[in-house]
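FW: tagging you since you asked about this chain on Friday. Here's the raw sequence from the shared folder, copied in full. Didn't touch anything.
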Amino acid sequence: MAKKKTRKPSTRKGNKKKQVVDFIKQIIVTACVVIVCFIAFWIGYEFIFPQDASSIGKKLESVEKGTEKNSGYPDDLYADTETDPANTDVPVISEPETIPFSMPDEVEMPRMESDRPEEIITRESFAVSYNRTYRIPNWVAYELTAQEAGSNKSSRSNKFVPDPELDGTPDTRDYSRSGYDRGHMAPAGDMKWSHQAMKESFYTSNICPQDHYMNQGIWNDLENKCRVWAKKHKSVWVVTGPVISKKMKRIGDTGIGIPEAFFKVLMYSTGTTLEGVAFVLENRNYEDSDLKKYAMPIDEAEKLTGIDFFHQLPDAVEDKMESELHLKKWGL
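HL: got it, structure written out here
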């Protein structure tokens, strides 16, 4: 009887399991290689391009200050940036195209910070705060435009008369033989644009006793400068008047006070910012008529006069403009 052939057990199943294990090992090895390569690449990048922690701090600080571009704002807000020459790493936002507020009507009208008598009259050409105690103005305020400064419509009147709207303003004869000029606060040279404006400038409510050489010299130079500035900057706002004190001497039958000094405060707009300057001049002859020597920030003039100038401006704008003095902006 023939013997049956015995079959060897099949190895297909074992081979299949081995292939699966080998495939999983290959995946793990490949993943480890990728991770090692990534770590090596990152270490090499950090070595070649180290990150400056201080520069990050600067950027964060600039974002807080609003000078760094932030995705939370529209792109065009930072479209016009310029470089700060003192630090080329920090971008500086350029000035806006216009001042960020509407200029108040009659922004030139000041207010008294002391208890001083005043009667305010608004005319075609200027506003005047009249001091009945001393028979002179506390201040005169107006805007002088380039067109007005360049006009020759009306010639000089030279006819000083009492103010028809105010009782008790001086007669021109009160100045006779006093040794003082009838000094304009709002000058006739600024009023050539209107016959009425010229006439109003000769009301004695707009006049103060002024040293002759001052009136014809440095004060006249300053008045001429105001017209130059008005033409150059389209307009200037002017507040001018005497520095009033309790120890003033007097002239004439009506007892006109003789100021020890005079002030002239000016402001113009560049379209983006406001520039201001003040001048305080003693009531005397000046051999040196260099106006730059007598220019000061408006804040200083406020302390000397007791008058709050341009108070209708937003506080931040007023504070900045009145505390700074940019003589080059005024050609001084």
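FW: Residues 12-48 form the longest helix (37 residues).
HL: agreed, and Residues 1-11, 49-97 have pLDDT under 50 and may be disordered.
FW: great, closing this out.
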